[in-house]
Structure formats: C-alpha cells, structure tokens
C-alpha cells in the first residue's frame, strides 16, 4: 500500500522547487532542502527495487527516467540548433546525459534542471555496488560522500570532476534513503537520533553562516552546509515518518493534487524552468519585481497553469514509461483489473526510479 506521507514529501519538494525558482528566496532552501529530500526518497526506492529485482532494476529505472527527457529534447534541441547551438556528437548526451548536454545561451537556463537527471543516472548506475557495500559496512559507506565533500571544500582534493562533487553533495542523501528502506532510521531511538540531528544541524548552520554564497545563505551555493543541514532534515523527515497518512486524502481535492504531482513529478521538474524563464520579461514589462508580493503570486500561478497544460500534453509519457494505462489526470477511478493481470502489473508497475510513484518501502516502515 502507498505511504501517503512520502507522497506528501514529494509533493512539497516539487512545489518548493518551482516556487524557489520563481521567487529566488534563499530562505526556502533552508526551510525545505527539496533536492536532498528527493534524492533520499529516490535512494529508498532504488534499494527496494534492487532487493526485488537485482541489477535488472537499473535498466528498469532508466526506462522510467529517460522517455520524459527525450520528449523535452525532441522539442528544445532542434530549437537550440536553429538558434546557434553547434551540431556536434555531444548533442547525443540529450539521449543519455551522463554529462551536461550542450545548450545555447537561452537553453542553458531554460533547461538547467537537467543536472538532476545527470546525477540521478550516475546514482542509479552506482547503486548496485553502493547498496552491497552499505549492507555490509553501513556507517563507513554512508560517511564516504560527506568526507569526500569535506575534502573538496577544504581544498584537500582540488579540481574534482563536477559529477564527483555531486556525489559528495547528494549521494549521502541517496544512501540515507537506503537506510530508510532498511528500516534503520525508524529503529534509531530518540536518545540517538536527536543528538545526531542537533550536531548535524549545528555544524551545517555554522558552516552556512561562515561561508555565505553570492546569494547569501542559499544552500545551493554552500555545498557542505547544504549536505549537513539536509542530512539533519532527512533524518527527521524519514526517520520519524508515519507509516501512513490517511489525512492527506481527507480533502479530495488536495489528495488528488498530491497524486497528480507525484505521478507527473518528472514532467513538472523538467519543464518548469522554461516557463520561469519565459515569464521573466514580465518583470520589466509589467513591473512585477521580486519585492512585489502580488506580482510574485501571479507569476507563480501562471507557471503552475502552464505546467498544467504541458503535463496534460506530455505527462502521459510517464505512464507509458511505467507501463501504466495513460491518464490525462492521474488518480481517477480505474476499472477492476483481472487477478492474473493485476499480479503482472504489480510486479512491473512498482519498479520505478522517479520521485512521485508508489513507495515500496511503506511495507517496511522524494536546487
């Protein structure tokens, strides 16, 4: 059965990401470190998939992840080629982004969320070995990313590859997801969990205060502070997550919104920045500055309305990739499925890697 609390976390994470990119409010990154939460939820799902399917789970995860990217690439890459992007073999990275795919001057900003898929791909590919190590040496394996990031931030490891820095920043959250799936976070007694959370939050907060970035105390500019602060947040959010949260569905409209945004999380994430960029000229034309609450509210509403349109047009791709019947608006009533087919669909339908789907870990207990 679904754990609606985890669905709610994904819902809040996606909403926070969109609102942050519209407003630029650094405080939102501190209140809710959304990207680390999404990686932690994804890591939990990945561990559950590997437990069920073994290494074949990697291929299934990629199957769930890439089609929505290909839709974006089919629209934006030709447009970028027509507006100055050179046609080189690197364009093929839009099919499998193990490195940042090339983009022109406007595409680099509109498609900037692609870094998440790049990191996600690497984390999925690394997960079989990482999970094997984590099951045998849990604490040392979990600490490796944080020590790697510390070495980078202190200059001990100079000029690291960009992906390696991202491993230091976010793979620790991914492996906290491993710990959540194994039930380790839930089993931590308060006398252990609370001091760990306080130490991490204090260390992360101190680093953040001592190392403000170009946007002040925006976690996206302070990697080590981001990793430590986010770890404290995840330990509380997942370590004390309720086994169920039926109250999410007490209001039918809100429950449906949580379901829709969960099922369309990847589409929303990939497209939202292009709408933020497209609406930015309104700041000059209409005078909607970042200090104008009404203007910001209108821009947020417009971005979500445009996301509603694009999810209606292309969101069904996530259903097809998940081998579900395509739906215009997810979460509606479905006709009964024959028992034999239900069993087959259950095996394929639960094995996903994109934040926003069914959470297999609920039986054990997602910049």
From TrEMBL:
TM stretches of this protein: 30-48, 69-95, 141-161, 167-185, 192-209, 229-248, 269-290, 296-317
Q: Does the keyword Transmembrane apply?
A: yes
Keyword field: Membrane, Transmembrane, Transmembrane helix
The Acyltransferase domain sits at 4-311
Keyword Transmembrane helix appears in the UniProt entry:
yes
Per UniProt, the ranges with Basic and acidic residues bias are: 342-353
Q: Where is this region: Disordered?
A: 327-367
- In Swiss-Prot or TrEMBL terms, this protein is called Membrane protein
Q: What is the lineage of its organism?
A: Bacteria, Bacillati, Actinomycetota, Actinomycetes, Micromonosporales
């Amino acid at each position: 059965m679904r754990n609606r609390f985890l669905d709610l976390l994904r819902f809040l994470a996606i909403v926070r990401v969109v609102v942050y990119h519209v407003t630029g409010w650094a405080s939102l990154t501190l209140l809710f470190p959304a990207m680390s939460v999404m990686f932690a939820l994804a890591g939990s799902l990945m561990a559950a998939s590997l437990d069920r399917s073994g290494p074949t789970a990697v291929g299934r995860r990629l199957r769930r992840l890439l089609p929505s990217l290909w839709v974006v690439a089919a629209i934006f890459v030709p447009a970028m080629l027509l507006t100055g992007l050179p046609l080189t073999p690197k364009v093929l990275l839009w099919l499998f982004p193990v490195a940042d795919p090339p983009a022109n001057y406007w595409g680099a900003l509109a498609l900037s969320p692609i870094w998440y898929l790049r990191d996600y791909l690497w984390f999925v590919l690394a997960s079989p070995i990482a999970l094997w190590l984590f099951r045998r040496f849990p604490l040392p394996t979990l600490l490796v990313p944080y020590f790697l990031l510390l070495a980078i931030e202190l200059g001990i490891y100079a000029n690291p590859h960009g992906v390696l820095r991202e491993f230091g920043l976010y793979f620790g959250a991914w492996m906290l997801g491993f710990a959540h799936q194994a039930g380790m976070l839930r089993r931590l007694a308060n006398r252990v969990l609370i001091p760990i959370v306080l130490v991490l939050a204090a260390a992360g907060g101190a680093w953040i205060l001592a190392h403000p970035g170009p946007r002040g105390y925006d976690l996206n500019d302070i990697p080590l502070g981001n990793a430590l602060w986010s770890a404290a947040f995840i330990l509380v959010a997942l370590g004390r997550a309720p086994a169920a949260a039926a109250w999410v569905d007490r209001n039918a409209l809100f429950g449906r919104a949580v379901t829709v945004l969960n099922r369309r999380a990847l589409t929303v994430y990939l497209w939202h920045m292009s709408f933020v960029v497209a609406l930015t000229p309104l700041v000059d034309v209409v005078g909607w500055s970042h200090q104008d609450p009404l203007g910001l509210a209108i821009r947020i509403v417009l971005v979500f309305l445009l996301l509603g349109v694009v999810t209606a047009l292309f969101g069904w791709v996530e259903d097809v990739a998940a081998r579900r019947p395509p739906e215009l608006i997810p979460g509606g009533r479905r006709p009964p499925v024959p028992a034999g087919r239900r069993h087959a669909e259950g095996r394929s339908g639960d094995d996903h890697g994109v934040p926003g789907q069914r959470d297999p870990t609920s039986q054990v207990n997602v910049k």
